[in-house]
């Protein structure tokens, strides 16, 4: 299992998907804290310790699970802003989205995503994809956000 100090930030506007992701990560043995935010702006605020998260103190490894199609600020723009900022450019970003357009996959990798995972539409395949993601997260090493 990954170190308990790893925090997983999940930016996902679909509450049902967020619930399934969190439950299936737990089923895969991930016991790390998962913080869910419903849009890209809140993800940026959390990472930058701004807005509603102004009192948050970055204090360990952080990994972002990022949907693309979200309100306010979409996932691609969140990725672009994070990777353009030297304070946040080392945060690993896993795109976790239903978008499987090869051009979108290419663009996200060009912008610096660490990994691109397509959420299958079929429930059983969705659960299996998240379970496998959990197995991956159990072995991945993540830098501290307060470097």
UniProtKB/TrEMBL annotation:
It comes from the Bacteria. GO terms for biological process: phosphorelay signal transduction system. Residues 7-134 form the Response regulatory domain. Pfam families: Response_reg. Keywords: Phosphoprotein. The modification 4-aspartylphosphate is found at residue 67. The keyword Phosphoprotein applies. The keyword Manganese does not apply. InterPro entries: CheY-like_superfamily, Sig_transdc_resp-reg_receiver, TCS_response_regulator. PANTHER family: RESPONSE REGULATOR RCP1-RELATED. This is Response regulator.
């Amino acid at each position: 299992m990954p170190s308990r100090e790893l925090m997983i930030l999940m930016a996902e506007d679909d509450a049902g998907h967020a619930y399934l992701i969190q439950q299936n990560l737990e089923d895969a043995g991930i016991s790390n804290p998962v913080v869910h935010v419903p849009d890209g702006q809140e993800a940026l605020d959390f990472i930058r310790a701004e807005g509603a998260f102004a009192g948050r103190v970055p204090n360990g490894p952080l990994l972002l699970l990022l949907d693309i199609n979200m309100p306010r600020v979409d996932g691609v723009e969140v990725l672009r802003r994070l990777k353009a900022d030297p304070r946040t450019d080392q945060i690993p970003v896993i795109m976790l989205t239903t978008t499987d357009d090869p051009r979108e996959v290419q663009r996200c990798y060009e912008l610096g995503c660490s990994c691109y995972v397509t959420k299958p539409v079929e429930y059983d395949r969705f659960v299996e994809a998240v379970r496998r993601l959990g197995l991956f997260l159990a072995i991945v090493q993540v830098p501290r956000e307060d470097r």
